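Handout, section 3.2

Students often ask what a structure token actually looks like in practice. Rather than define it abstractly, here is a full record for BHLH domain-containing protein. The first block is the sequence as you would receive it.
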Amino acid sequence: MVSRRSTKGASKARRDHINHEIRNMRALLPIVQEDQERLSYLHSMAAICTYIRKSVLFQVGKVQNILTEF
């Protein structure tokens, strides 16, 4: 007899953890609280990724500007 263990609890815990992290990252976005709360998790992730890409792009631009000054 093969024992089949339910992974329902583990899956829920994993989803809860992911959702918690998304809420934490969404809170860091430079938008007002009401707009943050209206974002779905998918839209939150899209906004977070866009914010990170722009931050990295502007940091690279600043570093390149500093290097070209010397």
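Discussion prompt for tutorial groups: The chain has a mean pLDDT of 85. How would you have guessed this from the sequence alone?
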